Amino acid sequence: MSINLIVDWISQNNHLILNATWQTVYMVAISGLVGFLVGIPLGVILHITKPGGLMENRRFNRILGAIVNIGRSVPFLVLMVAIIPLTKLLIGTFIGTTAAIVPLTIGAIPFVARLIEGALLEVPAGLVEAAQAMGAKPLQIIIKVLLPEAMPTILNSVTITLVTLVSYSAMAGTVGGGGLGDVAIRYGFYRYDITVMAVTVVMLIVLVQIIQSIGDAIVRRVDHR
To answer: Where are the domains positioned within the chain?
Structure first.
């Protein structure tokens, strides 16, 4: 298989590839946004309720941690099938790009939560103790100390999550989720067309590289350590 063959296929099917790429970006963007909106507060709660945390609550932390661990341990394809009733309830169907956002989001939330918890663990305890000594409330410490100090690692976690969601979105294509994964299955695997498989892999690599490059650039700008 030559580069010219791949280029020729792209030129003849550019609409298909561009549409599939847009679907992938759409799935990753929406699921990532909702995943961050829920996962970041969840990670903060896990951190502040742990033993020795700002608002220590060991029993609550264990229960929440167990729920997050269960969410992280379920393979994505199994998750997609398991929550089909929920997806149909929310979207009206379990097939299509929009429907794939539901399992992508549910898969992202516990992943983000653990990454944020890990990012907050890197904040020196001395900074928190100093803020407490000055009379800062827990919410003030979270907003003005923990999150700003952990911001470079948090942003790196965002990049990791988006890259992971790209791979998840490709898996969603195997069950009619749309995007580049769907093109790879329908036009590549079922038709035994290696060119299509190669093109979709290249497009996925390009997306990952773009996300990683933008994420790294943002982290460098905010990291003053």
So the answer is: 3-222
**How many Cβ atoms are within 10 Å of 115's Cβ, its own excluded?**
21
Mean pLDDT of 71-93: 87
Residues 6+ apart with CB under 8 A from 64: 42, 45, 46, 49
Closest CA to 214 of 162, 148, 151: 162
Name the amino acid, one letter, at 81: V
The token pair that represents 2 in the structure block:
């030559």
Question: What's residue 76's pLDDT?
Answer: 87
Percent of the chain residues topping a pLDDT of 70: 90
CA distance 210 to 163: 10
Query: Which of 181, 182, 178, 205 is closest to 26 using CA atoms?
Result: 178
Q: Which residue has the higher pLDDT, 39 or 10?
A: 39
CA distances from residue 57 to 60, 64, 66, 225 in whole angstroms, order as listed: 6, 11, 14, 32
Q: How many CB atoms lie within 10 A of CB 90?
A: 14
State yes or no: pLDDT of 1 exceeds 70. Answer: no
Q: What is the pTM of this model?
A: 0.87
What number does CATH give the domain 3-222? 1.10.3720.10
pLDDT score of 62: 94
For 17, 36, 57, 171, the CA distances from 44, given in Å and listed in that order, are 39, 12, 13, 29
